[in-house]
Amino acid sequence: PSASASGTFDVVVVGAGFSGLYLLHRLRRAGFSAVVLEAADDVGGTWYWNRYPGARCDVPSVEYSFSFDDSLEQEWNWTERYAAQPEILKYLEHVAERFDLKRDIRFNTRVEAATYDVDAERWTVQAENGSTLQARFVAMATGCLSTSSIPNLPGLSDFAGPVLHTGRWPHEPQDFTGKRVAVIGTGSSAIQAIPVIAQQAAHLTVFQRTPNFSLPAGNHPLKPEEVEQVKATYPERREYLRRSRSGATYEYATVPALATPEEVRRAEFERRWKIGGANFMHAYTDLVKVREANELAAQFVRDKIAATIRDPETARKLMPTSYPIGTKRICLDTDYYPTYNRDNVSLIDLLEEPLQTITANGVRTSRQEYPADVLICATGFDAMTGSLLAMDIGTTDGQSLRKVWAEGPRNYLGLMVAGFPNLFTVTGPGSPSVLSNMVTSIEQHVDWIVDCVDHLRSKGLATIEASQDAQDAWVDHVREVANTTLYPQAASWYMGANIPGKPRMFLPYIGGVGAYRGKCEEVVAAGYKGFVLKPAQARAAA
Ligand code: NA7
């Protein structure tokens, strides 16, 4: 562990991933004193922890990158359509280096509490290593998918070999040659890891609870001409992303599937399937709104699964039928389905043969024990709220975030929580976040936050807080927009359904990146409508 940190700052930032790095850069440039507290021993956030084989982004890398600095954009060369984890981590290290960020980051410093003193109008932030810092503002740049979830599987501690989680992958290279590997889970992480592990392992047994819809990523090396073409048009491209539906370039649909003749529709699905990536889900305007339309897309993918998998039983098990396509996060893969045609891969359906216990030597279901030398939990995260609620966030007048959010997160614009002045959340629940290109959304939030702190300074104001009314209205709006879609019908992590006891509520804002940005801008133009801004209290100023 690093030496404990102390001191008084304008802003304490928690987390040194994409959000925390950009926050630090912008705060410094605006002349604020800032420090970043980071649990890991280096920068990267998500891309520091998720080192499992096959880990890569699902948004084209030329867009899954910062837009705030022209020369950074021009000098960095992405090598693949979807960058793999090592390349993204290298990029973030480069950013940290280039803007000399590390000197203001305290590593090995996991924040455990943040308390707002209502009299002094100051936050005190405490970390497990004894660090105690004071600040006027705190910005939580803690990520949406950063608190790993390891299910409480019976017998897990009896397992004789290593137990790995995809989101907490060891830094030492893992060699599965000659090993029998068990993977639990078939979400995005598993779907990326399985084809790679299958090439190494003696045998790979996949334990699936709910099958997922996966689309071909269509990943490929980027040709220098492609990169040059993007670089030549970056300003327009980025501006388009900021105003787009999901912060990335897709051919956004203009017509509903149900109004399209079958032949045309099939050809369009096929064309988008070949382009790869999430383009498929943007084929028609009604795909995530009307069940009948959704079913057309779902059946197209099931037909692809049937055509790919040689064993009909395995194909049947892999076909999702219990929820609309896209309402659990759509997965993108490279050779996921064909991997089940390999002799050294078997698929176990936990709905047909429930998992009974982990044993010293493997996994036992109601039918039999499956031997394993290594157990990989690809079991996901306590999404969006997990990392915030892992900290004890409160105020000296008795507010506690854990209490206020006991029935689910409530905030205004995904940025601030009523009762917690000067506390910001980057890509918090109630913002587009996980339904968008995260980097586009992160930049928008960071810009909004730094502009806000700058505004307070220029007006001689000390505090900003979301009003209760504006918060209530925003929470209602987030729910109403979600309810115009099929999303709430799936037991997904978007709904908090993957964590036992977590309140069910649609967490991100599905109104669209461009529309959301517009709302944030309107709020500012109307003098921070829905927020209460105040000068320093007499007591605090004294
Ligand atoms: P996900 O998408 O939450 O996937 C977790 C998987 O683990 C999923 O298939 C779960 O099945 C399965 N799971 C979880 N708990 C259990 C238990 N107790 N038994 C059996 N199977 C279980 O996490 P990922 O890491 O793949 O992806 C998260 C996001 O990160 C991803 O969407 C990208 O945005 C990046 P279930 O569906 O719950 O039946």
| Structural shape | globular
- Per DSSP E runs of 2 or more residues, the count of β-strands stands at 20
Query: Which stretches of 5+ consecutive residues score pLDDT under 50?
Result: none
Bound ligands: ligand NA7
Radius of gyration: 24 Å
Can you give the mean pLDDT? 97
Q: Report the total helices.
A: 17
**Biggest sheet: strands, sense, closure?**
8 strands, mixed
Approximately what portion of the residues adopt beta-strand conformation? Answer: 15-25%
The secondary-structure class comes to alpha/beta
Helix content: 25-40%
Q: Roughly how many Å apart are the termini? A: 38 Å
Family: Belongs to the FAD-binding monooxygenase family.
InterPro entries: FAD-binding_Monooxygenases, FAD/NAD-bd_sf
Protein name: Cyclohexanone monooxygenase
Keywords: FAD, Flavoprotein, Monooxygenase, NADP, Oxidoreductase
Give a quick rundown of the structure.
The protein is of the alpha/beta class and 542 residues long. The protein contains 17 helices and 20 strands.
Structure notes:
With 542 residues, the protein is α/β, with parallel strands linked by helices. It contains 17 helices and 20 strands. Strands 1, 2, 3, 4, 5, 6, 17 and 18 form an eight-stranded mixed β-sheet that branches. Helix 1 runs parallel beside helix 14 (438-458), helix 9 (291-308) runs antiparallel to helix 10 and helix 14 packs parallel to helix 16 (513-525). The longest helix has 21 residues, at 438-458. It is globular and about 75 Å long. The mean pLDDT is 97. Bound molecules: ligand NA7. Its cofactor is FAD. This is Cyclohexanone monooxygenase. It holds the Pfam family Pyr_redox_3.
